[in-house]
Amino acid sequence: MPDFDLTVIGSGPGGYVAAIHAARLGAKVAIVEQKASEWGGTCLNWGCIPTKALIQSAEVFSAVRRAGEFGVKVGEPEVDWPAMQARKDKVVAGMRQGVQGLLKANGVEMIVGRGRLAGGRRVAVDGRELEAGHVLLAPGSVVALPPLPGAEAALTSDTILGLKELPSRLVVIGGGVVGMEFVGIFSLLGSNVTVIEMMDQLLTPLDPDVAGRFQQLMAKRGVEFHLGAKVEAIEKAGPGFRVRFSGGEVEADQVLVATGRSPNTADLGLEEAGVGLDRGAIKVDPHLRTSLEGVYAIGDATAISMLAHTASYQGEIAVANALGEKLISADYSAIPACIYTDPEIAFVGLSEAQARAAGEEVKVGAFPFSALGRAMILGETAGQVKVVADGSGYILGVTIMGPRATDLIAEAVLALHQGITAAELAHAVHAHPTLPEALAEAALDVDGRAVHIAPRKR
């Protein structure tokens, strides 16, 4: 008789959500986390939550500096970096306790230790062996450092969260989501920031037009960009660093290497147990099953979509397949991506470029926040909403850059998930004055019917 119906390795947003779903279906569940200080996984401890807490502090600082624009007189604000760090740590600790409380309340047995597959559906944890009806692998990801001389001396997206002082000069290597979020934090707080990116575009696979507009906005803030540039070495230069790259060199107090993450699949006994890997990622079928019967995998470790909400979604699907009678396939067509920069960026589905590359007959509608009443009231008019539809008007994708884009994208996700047309989205009544009106106007513009911008030239 197995000890558990399901054993979960990893307590991130995939693992703990899956464990709770399984427990609520009546299963006896164990979840294994390698460190007592890391319940909640990478997202809660090193990623989504602490970075967004710092972003919020940076945005408050920026808002106070602009108070005069709104008729509010205040003194010149100052950055209290230790206090920002303390607030971030408090938010993380509170949420970590919340995850533990939820697991306990749902009767999930929490086990601390490095879990490894021990053959079949057995998991070994520091001398203890757990036998289960099913095993769910949710080990997450780790920072991926490039083979670059001096990279080991630089900050990573993990270690920068413990920075004791605000750097006056920061070099960010990597123009992806993680890099741009830290660029946003430190540029708002007054650091001089330089970005070096080997690609010719920031934030791929973001719509190139939107990525270009974002770069222009950051450049106006003083951020220096070197695109299509290859870093050659990171060297110590006095108390700081020198970064040599194709095209020149730049000195800084700190260097952040933000070149991505890789699946955390080492030392889990996967290959010995018979779990297939592809370049370090766990191979799964559409039902989240691995090559080993009874063993499932979700989240960053599968490298399908390294997003917390994707992991949670996969966890629910994997549990349903492990404990249910009918198999469910995961559908990734309406997974939103959110970038917490200033302005925020969010997208779902296909960009205009991707739709055209796929051979679709494309119709595009766009609406600028500069023409929206609510955005004017907020004093945040940079950016636009872009809706991509097929020849029949069915929505293929939406990209938003502007105020609260990461919240606004939810309506677009629902529209894409339900397979509606741009006209149907626009026909739904949107309250005034609100930010979602921009999405309705962009949907109207797919057919050239937007009200609050000049009509297109025929």
Q: Can you give a write-up of this model?
A:
This protein is α/β, with parallel strands linked by helices and 458 residues long. It is built from 13 helices and 23 strands. The strands form 6 sheets. Strands 1, 2, 3, 4, 5, 6 and 18 form a 7-stranded mixed beta sheet that branches. The protein has a 5-stranded antiparallel beta sheet with strand order 19-20-23-22-21. Helix 1 (15-24) runs parallel beside helix 8 (308-323). It is globular and about 70 Å long.
What is the 3D form? Answer: globular
Q: Low-confidence parts lasting 5 or more residues at pLDDT below 50?
A: none
Per DSSP, the total helix count is 13
Strand proportion: 15-25%
Query: Helices and strands: which structural class?
Result: alpha/beta
Mean pLDDT, to the nearest integer, reads 97
Please compute the radius of gyration using only Cα atoms. Answer: 23 Å
Which sheet architecture does the biggest sheet show?
A: 7 strands, mixed
Number of strands: 23
The separation of the N and C termini measures 73 Å
Kindly state the percentage of residues in helix: 25-40%
Question: What's this entry about, in short?
Answer:
This protein is an alpha/beta fold. It has helices spanning 15-24, 41-45, 48-65, 81-105, 177-188, 208-220, 270-273, 308-323, 352-357, 373-378, 405-418, 422-427, 437-445; strands at residues 4-9, 29-33, 109-112, 115-117, 122-125, 128-137, 141-143, 169-173, 192-197, 224-227, 231-237, 240-245, 248-252, 254-257, 261-263, 277-278, 281-282, 295-297, 337-339, 344-349, 363-368, 384-389, 395-402.
